[in-house]
Write a structure and sequence with these properties.
98 residues, mainly alpha
């Protein structure tokens, strides 16, 4: 058992600048959109992705009309989703973070 709280991950102050320097577009997605992407991944491919791993697919789904007719790809990473969160997502809900 830890005697002190575990600090929450924090972004590096320059991370967004670095990302913007090498990207054409940044798409913001909601927790509900990420949960839907997790459901799509699971039902289509039986991949149990965590939220961060499914976020690229959530962005692609959000941008579907804009990208119509183009060839696109997303990288799905991370399967670190706990059982209760996955159950909530597969039941149609969105896990509460924090």
């Amino acid at each position: 058992m830890l005697s002190r709280p575990i600090p929450l991950p924090q972004s590096v102050p320059t991370a967004l600048e670095v990302i913007r320097g090498g990207t054409e577009r940044i798409v913001e997605v909601s927790d509900d959109e990420i949960a839907e992407a997790i459901r799509v991944l699971y039902s289509a491919t039986h991949t149990g992705a965590e939220g961060a791993g499914a976020a690229p697919l959530a962005a692609l789904i959000k941008e579907r009309d804009r990208l119509q007719g183009r060839r696109v790809a997303v990288v799905v990473t991370g399967q670190n989703i706990d059982r209760s969160s996955m159950q909530t997502v597969l039941a149609g809900g969105t896990p509460q973070v924090g």
